[in-house]
Design a protein that fits this description.
Low-confidence stretches: none
Helix content: 10-25%
Strand order of the largest sheet: 10-9-11-12-13-14
CATH architecture of the largest domain: 3-Layer(aba) Sandwich
Structural class: alpha/beta
Oligomer: single chain
Length: 280
């Protein structure tokens, strides 16, 4: 299939059927593109991703996967387009990279996959990094961020097809958002953006539009994020991983409700007077 370019969405014609009526319409559709990461010219992994914020994605992937210790280890990054997709050429500080021969991920990472290309159980289930104390949050702050997130997702507003990862302040302000067709990619892009802007991941909290899976909790732990809020359900492994890492994991976040699964000491409960009505 030909490469569609760097636009994260394109317009396609479609015939919509609605309650017995049909109409021809043009819809904005999210693109997913093969994105290859190469270290000093050597291929490491190909991921299906939205073709935007690729510099953030490359750095965030390196940090969340433990390939680089910090953003200063990445010396140069070049985005190259090819007929088949996009190549991200990374030049790293000598000695900064681990032995990639032991961590090959040469299979294509599908849009929704965080472990595609892992060849052993040890690669698939890595131990998290313990996080620090972080900040104390209120339920009001979590709810405020949740309410504000929709307006901060321009690509999803156009296409309805992408995930978002947002970094939020202690007060619940949505400060930084990255979108992608893959939830893991969205988080990697956010991690890369935080690192490139010199922001401390432990000074706020992470809001995800997806379920809370093990891989997302692991990525959060690798960069010191202490609280993860997800709009959908957690997995059992994600809960155990968050507990081991010291992460406060909150899921099923909806207007007026959320469920805290691990380390609730970082969350102050709503008072009886301030508690909003729970919607059905």
């Amino acid at each position: 299939m030909p490469f569609a370019g760097l636009n994260p969405h394109r317009t396609f014609a479609g015939q919509r059927w609605l309650a017995g009526d049909e109409e021809l319409r043009n819809d904005a559709v999210a693109e997913e593109t093969p994105v290859a990461l190469l270290f000093d010219g050597q291929p490491h992994v190909v991921m299906m991703a939205s073709p935007q914020d690729l510099e953030d994605f490359a750095l965030g992937f390196c940090l969340s996967e433990g390939l680089l210790a910090g953003p200063d280890d990445l010396l140069a990054l070049e985005v190259l387009t090819h007929p088949e997709g996009i190549a991200l050429q990374l030049a790293c500080r000598p000695g900064a990279l681990p032995d990639l021969g032991e961590r090959r991920r040469n299979l294509t990472g599908r849009t929704g996959c965080g472990l595609c290309g892992a060849e052993t159980l040890a690669q698939a289930v890595r131990a998290p990094r313990p996080v620090g104390a972080g900040v104390t949050l209120t339920a009001q702050a979590l709810q405020a961020a949740l309410a504000a997130l929709g307006a901060a997702q321009p690509l999803n507003a156009i296409t309805g097809a992408v995930h978002a990862a947002a970094w939020c302040s202690v007060a619940g302000e949505v400060l930084l958002v990255r979108e992608d067709v893959g939830r893991h990619n969205a988080l990697d892009k956010l991690i890369g953006a935080l690192a490139r802007q010199g922001l401390d991941p432990a000074a706020g909290f992470l809001l995800l539009t997806s379920r809370a899976s093990y891989e997302l909790v692991l990525k959060a732990s690798m960069v010191g994020i202490t609280t993860v809020l997800a709009v959908s359900a957690p997995t059992g492994l994600a809960i155990r991983m968050a507990d081991e890492a010291g992460i406060t994991l909150v899921a099923f976040a909806r207007t007026g409700r959320h469920t805290i699964y691990t380390h609730p000491d970082r969350l102050q409960p709503l008072s009886a007077v301030e508690q909003p009505a729970v919607l059905p």
